[in-house]
Write a structure and sequence with these properties.
- It contains 4 helices and 4 strands.
- By secondary structure, it is α+β, with helices and mostly antiparallel strands.
- About 40% of the residues lie in helices and about 30% in strands.
Length: about 180
């Protein structure tokens, strides 16, 4: 059987196709620089994003720690924060963050009497800490005097009572702490 006319097989070797009619030879594939460059750019972007995320987490932790850490920087500050926690927020666990070793019975009894009086009068007291005065007794100890004002509206009349308290505070490893309290 004869190959079809005009096919390469049927031609005699002397009758080759002229070079201008040949299909251009296939060019070798160009080196693929684009994917390598893209991979490098993506790696750099991923590294920068990871660094930003880690830095953001560290900064967030530090800011959170500072915002939630109890302020025990000075004798008067620790007394006010303690009284706010025990008398206003009535949060014993938060109040214990400001004491030397646990609850202070005299202040707890004062709070309990105040709560009983609120129930008896069917009202809520507003508590203000006023006239806070610090007397240093040593490098790491001080006495803080403070006036606790309880105010309420009873039968349409604004009333208030004041009590003077004395607190002994000590500067310990993590700042000042309230060690004892007594009504003056």
């Amino acid at each position: 059987m004869q190959p079809p006319a005009g096919s390469q097989v049927s031609r005699v070797p002397a009758q080759r196709t002229p070079p201008d009619q040949l299909a251009p030879p296939a060019a070798p594939p160009a080196p693929q620089q684009q994917p390598r460059r893209t991979r490098t750019v993506l790696t750099v972007v991923a590294g920068v994003l990871a660094l930003l995320c880690v830095s953001g987490a560290v900064i967030g932790y530090v800011l959170y720690d500072r915002a939630t850490a109890p302020d025990r920087s000075a004798p008067d500050v620790v007394v006010v924060n303690y009284l706010q926690a025990v008398l206003v927020a009535r949060d014993d666990s938060k109040a214990n963050l400001f004491t030397c070793g646990g609850p202070l019975p005299a202040v707890d009894e004062f709070r309990d009497r105040m709560a009983a009086r609120e129930q008896q009068l069917d009202t809520a007291f507003s508590v203000n800490i006023e006239n806070v005065a610090v007397t240093k007794t040593g490098d790491k100890s001080a006495v803080v005097d403070a006036v606790i004002r309880r105010s309420a509206t009873i039968d349409g009349v604004q009333q208030s009572l004041t009590d003077t308290w004395r607190f002994e505070v000590a500067d310990q490893q993590e700042g000042w702490r309230v060690c004892s309290a007594a009504s003056a």
